[in-house]
Amino acid sequence: MLIPERQNRLRDLLGRRGMSDLDSLAAELNVSQSTVRRDVESLVASGLVQRTHGGVIWIGDRNTAARPYAFDQRMGFRIEAKRAVARAAKQLVQPGQTILIDGGTTTFYFAEELAGLPLQIVTNSLPIANLFHNDDNVELIVMGGLMYPRYGVLLGPLAEQQLATIHAKTLFISVAGIHEGSLYNQNLLLVQVEQAMMRQVQDVVLLADASKFAQQALSQLCALKQVQTVVTDAAIPDSARQQIREAGCRLIVAED
């Protein structure tokens, strides 16, 4: 790949995502991290990006690149399936519990179902936090960190440090894909924070509509067997059911 072509692709990737880590960029461009670092410095000099610890955030014109699958756009994808998953997952929550909620559209619909319940909720998602800012029944804890603009989640070393001081009963998490017994997400920084969340809870509940099965993304989060419960919708394929059984997870299939 020619240098101008590579740099244009890097600019497009960052313009669409809003933020990324250097390892993910190097893998996608099939170059060394030192090469990516030089290209990033060129974008820094142009005022388009800002360096962070181990990563980079886009600060240029958001209209210079297409931004598909941003949070608000993905909210409209398989809405009824996600709402069904959210309603089923609500049954796993008991009043007075402390729960962790990861950022995502399915977890957002799940959080909507919790309105009015007396809970202690910890989240790294600004859209989810906004649901509870006036809810007197919820004690809301919002983690700090560097905001990933495409999804409104807080990531990075600060978020991971804060998570190390928190303990909760259950983590409710969503992912980009489930493939051959592993969970995946789009970005290494997302995965690192999700892994930190998993270390601080007793149980992990995966909220995934049926479209997530047989899908793979850039960064591997964990093995499916590290999840205690999977909540999905009735369109789940038989092969995915078998995969969940083999992993030893509890399977909850939401009614339409």
Structural features, described:
- It is built from 10 helices and 15 strands.
- It has 256 residues and is α/β, with parallel strands linked by helices.
- The chain folds into 2 domains: 3-64, Orthogonal Bundle (Arc Repressor Mutant, subunit A), CATH 1.10.10.10; 73-254, Rossmann fold.
CATH topology of the largest domain: Rossmann fold
Instruction: Report the strand count.
Output: 15
How many domain modules?
Answer: 2
Spatial strand order of the main sheet:
6-5-4-9-12-14-15
Strand fraction equals 25-35%
Biggest β-sheet, characterized? 7 strands, parallel
> End-to-end distance, in Å?
48 Å
Unreliable segments (pLDDT under 50, ≥5 consecutive)?
A: 62-69
Structural class: alpha/beta
Helix content range of the residues, please? Answer: 25-40%
Q: Estimate the global geometry from the Cα principal axes.
A: globular
List the helices and strands and how they pair.
Elements: H1 3-17, E1 19-21, H2 22-29, H3 33-45, E2 49-52, E3 55-58, H4 71-74, H5 79-90, E4 98-101, H6 105-113, E5 119-123, H7 126-131, E6 138-142, E7 146-148, E8 153-155, H8 157-163, E9 168-173, E10 177-179, E11 182-185, H9 188-199, E12 201-207, E13 219-223, E14 229-233, H10 238-247, E15 250-254
Helix pairs in contact: 2-3, 5-6, 8-9
